[in-house]
Amino acid sequence: MIDVNAHILLIYTGGTIGMIENPKTGSLEPFDFAHLTSHLPELQRFRFQVDHIVFDPVFDSSEVTPEHWKRIVRTIEKHYNQYDGFVILHGTDTMAYTASALSFMIENLHKPVVLTGAQLPIGKLRTDAKENLITALEIAADKDILGNPIVPEVCIFFQNDLLRGNRSTKVNADNFNAFKSYNYPNLGKSGIQIRYDRKAILQPDYDKKTIFHYYLDSRIASLRLFPGISKYTVETILSLKDIRAIILETYGSGNAPLSPWFLDQIRNAVRRDVIIVNITQCKIGMVDMQRYETGRELLKAGVISGFDSTFESAVAKLMFLIGHKYDKEDINIRMRVPLVGEITRPEDRVNEKI
Ligand code: ASP
Q: How many folded domains does the chain comprise?
């Protein structure tokens, strides 16, 4: 039920959604949020209040750095008590990274933080921006009969899909259905009505405070395997200076070559206290290093399973854990435990389709 007394804060960070076409030059320019309701008169039909903040300068999301994530979290923290929910307008290119980072940076979130964007600017006739924005605002204002928000999570709403932020991936550069969550069900779907999967949505502890975290360490790298990858490439990445963690993108259920030179490089890196997290290049399913000899050797070498983590979420979680100065053992444990629903452990897998 939409709370007609809700106050929602709309934060425009940048991206296609907020662009309009200059009728004279035909070029895309940032939309003037001071005139939001003249471009989007539909907003006046909401009975709840929508205030907005525009980042200065706005940024294309391919420019995003952890500093931008901190700015977004700082903005939410500053206004946390005044608003019932937050809608963040963000470019689609790195939206899944930002959503993942925010999910770790805001602990025990009590309120919806809904990210959305668009494939076509708000000023275009066939834009998807209006529907995405209007539905995201409704989701942020939706409450249950006890007055608690329905989706107290960092999530992405795009086209018809409401997805957990740290499970989302941008999958389409052309069509309106740009995001997918392969390893976790949708939190909701919009059609004539917005339908939520209440069992899939995280619930915070309302007796405990929300905690905002700002320490992030981006000293991480990734190594994506492919047949024929050279010893030199592997060696170069695994011995990069001042790198604390490497995301190893393996095949299938977490498999990698058994070549002695490859395994030696992995063992050496682990011995130098580099954290190596194994995630699969497959979109669906999870790493299980026990299944094949090619995975077992990685496990023996000290590689950590990323289970069914998205790449985006593994990046954000490692930056968060390393930034918080957990030692190697702690990171090892925390990477294998879902902090905010970002991974499924094998023992928690249910209703697996056969
Ligand atoms: N390059 C743009 C961005 O990610 C694309 C978009 O907004 O969809 O900021």
A: 2
